[in-house]
Amino acid sequence: MKANRTLLQMKYARIIPLFAEKVGINIRQALDFFYHSMEYQLLREGVSDLHCMDEDYIAEDLADEWREKKME
Question: Is 48:5 a contact under the CB 8 Å cutoff?
Fold first, then answer.
């Protein structure tokens, strides 16, 4: 199921600051990482209704992805 584009943009606006706080980076870095992340691709494509999940859950997934990339 595809989410409304405007609603997705509003969701992104709530996710990005949560993610930035979790990993200790500024909003600009969080924004850049978010738009190049697998989570963003899944949200944008409407895969497995990820857009229905809580923002904190998605931010934690982003933080996990961030940590994995930092370890590479």
Answer: no
pTM (2 d.p.): 0.89
Strands annotated E in 8-62: none
Torsion of CA 24, 20, 1, 6, to 10 degrees: 180
- Reduced to 3 states (helix: H, G, I; strand: E, B; else coil), residue 14 is helix
User: Rounded to 5 degrees, what are φ and ψ at 2?
Assistant: -85, 140
Q: What is the structure's pLDDT at 1?
A: 58
Question: Cα–Cα distance between 46 and 13 in angstroms, integer?
Answer: 17
- Domain boundaries along the sequence of the chain: 5-71
**CA pair distance 30, 10, nearest whole angstrom:** 16
